[in-house]
Structures are given as structure tokens and as C-alpha cells.
Write a structure and sequence with these properties.
By secondary structure, the protein is α+β, with helices and mostly antiparallel strands. It has one domain. The chain contains eight helices and four strands.
């Protein structure tokens, strides 16, 4: 694929209709603003004398107000960590070594990321949200600018775009078409291991 002539990292995507794209632009704009405030708090610049004596207040945002119908539906298909299955998942994770649970797809929770997880991850990542623009009919681009490496990854941005019924076409950082890793979570096996007080072994 021919790459865009831009100094920024970017994600190309297609969108199904104007409503989805407009809603995605609106939540992106709010994320852009909120992230600019949180970044000033979490990563203060020593030479910014003006900000030293100024309290930065981050207003409450009800992110649900920015969701298109497709996004509301997307975020209903998430894993409930408060359920019995969720408690088994957390217990098994505690019983399993970090070396195994960090790479094994068994520990990818089934379903989509929750809205809260997507927002928190984007706000925590070390990059600047630059712009989200239309390139042509039904095609858009999200620009972001990493501060260095590592910067926290881009999967939360993928999840945000997917939630608005968009299809990812190309990710500059990945160098290809993004796809989510499939979960191999097995509740019955997990229950057996927890009952035996054992973690996953491979």
C-alpha cells in the first residue's frame, strides 16, 4: 500500500456511514482535549513556568454520550470481571506465572474491550492525538505522534475505531492490516485448574 506523506504515525480505516464517522470524530476530539490535560499532569515539562503554579482541572466526561448505536452495541459485548467466570479468570491469572500469562492467548478475555479500558489506555499511552480526518468518501485516517519507544501500543486505538463499525485498512506502526488476537479462553478448563489450585502450565 502506498504510504501517506506525513510526519505522523497513522491508522487508515473505512467507515460505513456519515453518522459513524461523525460520532468517531466527536469522541476523538474529546479524547484529544482530555488527553492533553492528563498529559500535562502525568508528564509535566520542567521549563513550563506558567503551568507550575496553575492547577489543572480535568472535567468529568460521560463517554457514553459520544457513542453511536453501533458503538453502544459493541461495548455490550465485553467480559464481565465481576461475574463468577470473571472471578475464575482473575484467580487463574494470579496462579499462573507472568512468563506464561503475558503471551498465552488463553488470557485474552473473550469479547471486546470495555469502553472504560479503551479510554484509560488511550489516555495513558505516551503519544499525542493529532487529528482524525476524512481522506475520501468512506475512508478516514487517525494521526498520532509517539513521544518515543515504547509508547504503549495502538490496540486501544484499533478498538475505538472498530467500535464505530469501521474497518481497519492499514496501520503505519504495524506495517500492515491490524487484526485482534483471538482468545483461546476456556471457562471449563479454567475452573478445573482453579479448583486444583493450579495455574496454566503452558
Amino acid at each position: 500500500m502506498k504510504q501517506l506523506n506525513t510526519p505522523y504515525f497513522y491508522i487508515l480505516f473505512t467507515y460505513p456511514n456519515k453518522e459513524s464517522f461523525t460520532s468517531l470524530q466527536q469522541i476523538f476530539a474529546q479524547l484529544q482535549y482530555t488527553k492533553s490535560l492528563t498529559d500535562k499532569i502525568n508528564f509535566p515539562e520542567d521549563d513550563e513556568d506558567e503551568s507550575k503554579d496553575r492547577e489543572i482541572i480535568i472535567p468529568f466526561v460521560d463517554w457514553n454520550n459520544y457513542l453511536a448505536p453501533s458503538a453502544k452495541q459493541w461495548f455490550t459485548n465485553t467480559f464481565d470481571f465481576q461475574s463468577e467466570e470473571g472471578k475464575v479468570y482473575l484467580r487463574l491469572r494470579d496462579l499462573t506465572s507472568v512468563a506464561i500469562r503475558s503471551y498465552n492467548t488463553f488470557f485474552i478475555p473473550p469479547g471486546n474491550w470495555s469502553l472504560e479500558s479503551v479510554i484509560e489506555s488511550i489516555l495513558a499511552c505516551e503519544y499525542t492525538l493529532v487529528a482524525l480526518e476524512q481522506l475520501e468518501t468512506t475512508k478516514g485516517v487517525l494521526y498520532y505522534d509517539p513521544w518515543g519507544a515504547p509508547f504503549g501500543g495502538v490496540e486501544s486505538l484499533w478498538q475505538l475505531i472498530w467500535a464505530f463499525d469501521c474497518q481497519l485498512v492499514y496501520d503505519f506502526y504495524l506495517g500492515g492490516v491490524p487484526s485482534a488476537k483471538e482468545s483461546t479462553w476456556n471457562y471449563d478448563l479454567a475452573k478445573q485448574l482453579v479448583e486444583q489450585n493450579r495455574g496454566l502450565s503452558n
